[in-house]
C-alpha cells in the first residue's frame, strides 16, 4: 500500500479553533499541528472497530416521503454502527433548508457519541451545483466545457464550492475526466468532451478552485477525480487500432489525469467499474499501484465506485464471498468504499484483525481518510448555519456567473441567415417539442424539470419575452421514450401550429430525470445507466422533426441532452438554424431566447464530434492514421472510414458559429531555447473580426510529430484561448508550448521527441478551418 503524504503546501498550520473534550488537549486535536501528524496520532488511539468504521459511510441520510423530507432513525443507526467515515445528504429533491438541520444534528451526534469525537466528512456529487435543491443550478459539465472558457469555468466552480460549503459538504465526487469518445455513451453529459487536453485543463481548474485554502489554511472542498480508467471502443474497422496495454492506458484513457494529478493534486480518486484486460479496477493492483501510484504519481485516497466491491462476487465472479472481495480490493489499493445502500463490503474486514497484511493496509486506508478530514478542518470548524446558508445560496453574483456561463456554452451549428431574429418584426412563433417546456439538467442535478423554481423553460422564456399570445406551443409528441406508439395526432397539431405561425422552433432531446424513478416526469433515455444504439431522436421526436420540416416553414432546431444526435444532410439542408444547448441550467431557456433575438452572440464550440451515421464510430477527431485506411484492395470500398464516408464529419470537435465572422491569420511557429536549456515552441496568430458586431472566437492549436516511437493521432489539441474582438479589430494571440508538453508515454516512460512537427492553428479541428505551419525541435 502506498503511504500517502501530501505536499507541504497543504500541511501548514491552521489557525481555526480547536474542539477539545473537557480540559484534555491531545495532539490530534491540536489545530497547529500538520494534518499528517494529527492523523497518525489519532490512528494510534483507534480500536479495530473504529478503523473499520472509517472505510465507509451513510450516503442516503435523508429520504423524501409525500413531498416532505424523511429520516429513518432505525436504518441510519444500523448503518452507522459499522460505516461512519462519511455521510451524504440523501434525496436530491429535498431542499437545502429542509436538510441542513437534520444533517447538522447527525453530524453533532457523531462528534458527541464517538469515543474519540471523530466527525463525519460530508460527501456529495456536485455536477450542476449542490446535490440538493435550492442552490444555483448550472448547466451540465459538457455544456460548461463547450464555453471553452476556463476562466469563466473557474468562477462557476467557485460558486459551486461556496454553496457546498454553506451546506457543510466538504468532499465532492468530481471532476469526471472520462473522455466522451463514443457517442453511444449515456454519461457523455457528465464529461468535458472527447479531447484529453481540454478535459485536463478544465479538470485542473476545477480541482484547484475547489481545493483552495481558506484564510485559516483549511482546504475548502476536497475533490475526487474519476473514473480511473474508463474504456473506449474501436469501431469495428478492419485495420483499426486495437486498444490494450500500457501505452493505451497512459496516452488515451489516463491522459486527462496526468496534469490534474500532478499540478492540482486531487485529494481522492475513484476507480471505475471497468475491467481492463479482464481485471476489474477494484482488484487491479497493476493499474492502481504500478501505473496510478508509481508512474502517474497520485498520492491521495483511492475509493470505489458505488457498490463496485460487491460486484466482484455478484457479477464479475472474481471473488468467492464478501470477505474475499474486501480483502482482494484493499490489497489491490482501494482505501474507501462507496455503498449507497448501506451494506458495505469493507465491513466484513471486522473479522480480519488477525491478518497482519490486512491490518497494515487498513491502517494506511484509514490514515488517508483522516488526513482529508484534518485538511478540510472537520475537527476544528463549526457546523454550517441556516443563516449563513441562506446568505450564500443563489446570491445575485452567483446567478450572474451562471447566466454568463449559459451565454458562452450554447453552440450554434448552423445559420442560413435567418438569425438573429428581429423582435419588432416577429409575428407568431411556434414553439414545438417535448423538451421545450422543461428544464433538462441531467440526473446529477437537483431539478424538478417542470417546476419554475428551477428556472424558465424555453417556452416560458419565449412567452415572457414575446408575450403569451405570440407563442403557439405544441408538445408535438407525448412519446419521448422509444416505443411502438404510432398515434400522430400530436404531431399533426404541431404541424398546424408551425403553419399558423410561419416560423417554428423545435426543442428535441433525450434525458429528463433523476436517480429516483418516482420523480415527476422521470423519463430517462440518456445519462448513467443508458446507452444509445440509435442516435436519432428517441420516441416519436424524429417523426415530429421530419413532419415540421416537410411543411417548408423556416425551422430552428435546438437539441437538449447530454448526447449527440444524427444530423444528416437531409435534416441540415431543410433546417434554417441548429443549436446544441446540451444539459440545461436554470438560465438556458432565457439565454436561448437572447441568442435567437441577437441580444447575445453565440460563442460555444463543440467538445465532441457529431457522427454522420449510426455505427460510424469511432468519430473523434484525434484518430490514429491507421484507423482511416480501410482494408486491402477491393475491400476498401466497404470500410466506413474511407471511402464510404467521402468527407470528414462537418460538425467536428472545436466547431461552432457566431453572428460575426473571424479571420485567423499570420500564423507562425518557432522553436527557441529557454531556461535550463529547454526547448519551447512559440505559436502566434492574429484574429480579425471581419463582421459587424463584437464576438468571441476560440483559437485552437493542434500538433503532430512527423515521426514518433509509437503511432500518434493525426492531430492533438495542445493549446486554446477564447478571445473577444470588437468589429473590425484585430487581436494578437500568443502561445508557448514547452517541448516536454509534446511528449507521450512509451511503456511507462515519458518520451519527448526532437525533430519535425506540424502545428495547425484555427477555429476548429476541421482542416478547412486550420492553417498549418512546420517547426523543427532540436533533440
Task: Please summarize what this structure is.
This protein is α/β, with parallel strands linked by helices. Helix content is 28%, strand content 17%.
Task: Set down the secondary structure blueprint.
Elements: H1 35-45, H2 48-53, E1 57-58, E2 63-65, E3 68-70, H3 73-80, E4 86-87, H4 96-113, E5 121-124, H5 141-145, H6 150-166, E6 171-172, H7 196-210, E7 224-228, H8 246-253, H9 255-264, E8 268-271, E9 275-276, E10 279-280, H10 285-296, E11 301-303, H11 308-314, H12 322-332, H13 356-375, H14 386-392, H15 396-409, E12 411-415, E13 429-432, H16 458-466, E14 471-474, H17 489-501, E15 504-509, H18 541-550, E16 555-560, H19 569-572, E17 577-580, H20 588-596, H21 640-644, E18 662-673, E19 679-689, E20 695-705, E21 716-725, E22 730-738, E23 744-746, E24 749-751, E25 755-762, E26 770-777
Parallel strand pairs: 1-4, 4-5, 5-6, 7-8, 8-11, 13-14, 13-15, 15-16, 16-17
Antiparallel strand pairs: 2-3, 9-10, 12-17, 18-19, 19-22, 20-21, 20-25, 23-24, 25-26
Helix pairs in contact: 1-13, 6-7, 6-14, 6-15, 7-9, 11-12, 16-20, 17-18
Amino acid at each position: 500500500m502506498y503511504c500517502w503524504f501530501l505536499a507541504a503546501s497543504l500541511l501548514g498550520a491552521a489557525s481555526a479553533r480547536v474542539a477539545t473534550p473537557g480540559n484534555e488537549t491531545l495532539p490530534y486535536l491540536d489545530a497547529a499541528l500538520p494534518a499528517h501528524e494529527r492523523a497518525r496520532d489519532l490512528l494510534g488511539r483507534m480500536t479495530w472497530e473504529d478503523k473499520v468504521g472509517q472505510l465507509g459511510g451513510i450516503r442516503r441520510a435523508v429520504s423524501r416521503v409525500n413531498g416532505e423530507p424523511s429520516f429513518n432513525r432505525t436504518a441510519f443507526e444500523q448503518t452507522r454502527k459499522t460505516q461512519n467515515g462519511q455521510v451524504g445528504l440523501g434525496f436530491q429533491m429535498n431542499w437545502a433548508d429542509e436538510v441542513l438541520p437534520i444533517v447538522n444534528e447527525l453530524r453533532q451526534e457523531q462528534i458527541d457519541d464517538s469515543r474519540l469525537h471523530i466527525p463525519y466528512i460530508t460527501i456529495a456529487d456536485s455536477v450542476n451545483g449542490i446535490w440538493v435543491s435550492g442552490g444555483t443550478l448550472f448547466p451540465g459539465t459538457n455544456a460548461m466545457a463547450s464555453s471553452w472558457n476556463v476562466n469563466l469555468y473557474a468562477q462557476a466552480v467557485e460558486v459551486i464550492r461556496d454553496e457546498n460549503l454553506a451546506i457543510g459538504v466538504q468532499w465532492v465526487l468530481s471532476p469526471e475526466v472520462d473522455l466522451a469518445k463514443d457517442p453511444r455513451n449515456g454519461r457523455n453529459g457528465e464529461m468535458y468532451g472527447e479531447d484529453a487536453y481540454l478535459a485536463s485543463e478544465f479538470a485542473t481548474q476545477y480541482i484547484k478552485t475547489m481545493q483552495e485554502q481558506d484564510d485559516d489554511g483549511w482546504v475548502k472542498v476536497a475533490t475526487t477525480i474519476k473514473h480511473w480508467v474508463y474504456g473506449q471502443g474501436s469501431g469495428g474497422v478492419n485495420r483499426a487500432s486495437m486498444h490494450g496495454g500500457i501505452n493505451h492506458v497512459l496516452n488515451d484513457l489516463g491522459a486527462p489525469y496526468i496534469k490534474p494529478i500532478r499540478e492540482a493534486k486531487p485529494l481522492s480518486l475513484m476507480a471505475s467499474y471497468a475491467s481492463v484486460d479482464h481485471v476489474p479496477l477494484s482488484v487491479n493492483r497493476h493499474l492502481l499501484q504500478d501505473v496510478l501510484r508509481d508512474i502517474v504519481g497520485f498520492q491521495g485516497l483511492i475509493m470505489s465506485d458505488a457498490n463496485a466491491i460487491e460486484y466482484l462476487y455478484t457479477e464479475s465472479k472474481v471473488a468467492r464471498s464478501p470477505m474475499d472481495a474486501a480483502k482482494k480490493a484493499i490489497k489491490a489499493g482501494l482505501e474507501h468504499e462507496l455503498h449507497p445502500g448501506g451494506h458495505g463490503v469493507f465491513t466484513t474486514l471486522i473479522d480480519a484483525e488477525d491478518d497482519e497484511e490486512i491490518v497494515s493496509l487498513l491502517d494506511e486506508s484509514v490514515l488517508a481518510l483522516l488526513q482529508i478530514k484534518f485538511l478540510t478542518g472537520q475537527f476544528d470548524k463549526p457546523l454550517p448555519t441556516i443563516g449563513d446558508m441562506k446568505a450564500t445560496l443563489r446570491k445575485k453574483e452567483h446567478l450572474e456567473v451562471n447566466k454568463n456561463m449559459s451565454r458562452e456554452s450554447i453552440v450554434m451549428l448552423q445559420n442560413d441567415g435567418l438569425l438573429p431574429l428581429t423582435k419588432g418584426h416577429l409575428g407568431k412563433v411556434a414553439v414545438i417539442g417535448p423538451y421545450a417546456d422543461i428544464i433538462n439538467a441531467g440526473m446529477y442535478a437537483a431539478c424538478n424539470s417542470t417546476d419554475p423554481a428551477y428556472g424558465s423553460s424555453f417556452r416560458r422564456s419565449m412567452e415572457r419575452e414575446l408575450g403569451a399570445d405570440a407563442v403557439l406551443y405544441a408538445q408535438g409528441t407525448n412519446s419521448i421514450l422509444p416505443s411502438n406508439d404510432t398515434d400522430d395526432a400530436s404531431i399533426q397539431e404541431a404541424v398546424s401550429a408551425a403553419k399558423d405561425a410561419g416560423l417554428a422552433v423545435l426543442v428535441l432531446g433525450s434525458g429528463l430525470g433523476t436517480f429516483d424513478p418516482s420523480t415527476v416526469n422521470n423519463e430517462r433515455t440518456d445519462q448513467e445507466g443508458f446507452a444509445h444504439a440509435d442516435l436519432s431522436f428517441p420516441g416519436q421526436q424524429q417523426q415530429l422533426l421530419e413532419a415540421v420540416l416537410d411543411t417548408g416553414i423556416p425551422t430552428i432546431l435546438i437539441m437538449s441532452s447530454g448526447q449527440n444526435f444524427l444530423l444528416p444532410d437531409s435534416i441540415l439542408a431543410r433546417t434554417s438554424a441548429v443549436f446544441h444547448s446540451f444539459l440545461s441550467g436554470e438560465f438556458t431557456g432565457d439565454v436561448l431566447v437572447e441568442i435567437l433575438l441577437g441580444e447575445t452572440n453565440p460563442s460555444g464550440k463543440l467538445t465532441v464530434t457529431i457522427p454522420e451515421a449510426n455505427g460510424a464510430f469511432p468519430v473523434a477527431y484525434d484518430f490514429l492514421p491507421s484507423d482511416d485506411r480501410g482494408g486491402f484492395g477491393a475491400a476498401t470500398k466497404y470500410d466506413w472510414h474511407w471511402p464510404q464516408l467521402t468527407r470528414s464529419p462537418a460538425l467536428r470537435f472545436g466547431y461552432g458559429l457566431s453572428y460575426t465572422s473571424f479571420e485567423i491569420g499570420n500564423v507562425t511557429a518557432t522553436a527557441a531555447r529557454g531556461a535550463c536549456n529547454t526547448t519551447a515552441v512559440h505559436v502566434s496568430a492574429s484574429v480579425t473580426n471581419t463582421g459587424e458586431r463584437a464576438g468571441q472566437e476560440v483559437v485552437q492549436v493542434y500538433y503532430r510529430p512527423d515521426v514518433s516511437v509509437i503511432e500518434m493521432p493525426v492531430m492533438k489539441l495542445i493549446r486554446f484561448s477564447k478571445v473577444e474582438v470588437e468589429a473590425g479589430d484585430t487581436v494578437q494571440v500568443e502561445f508557448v508550448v514547452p517541448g516536454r508538453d509534446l511528449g507521450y508515454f512509451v511503456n511507462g516512460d515519458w518520451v519527448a521527441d526532437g525533430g519535425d512537427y506540424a502545428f495547425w492553428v484555427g477555429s476548429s479541428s476541421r482542416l478547412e478551418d486550420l492553417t498549418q505551419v512546420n517547426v523543427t525541435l532540436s533533440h
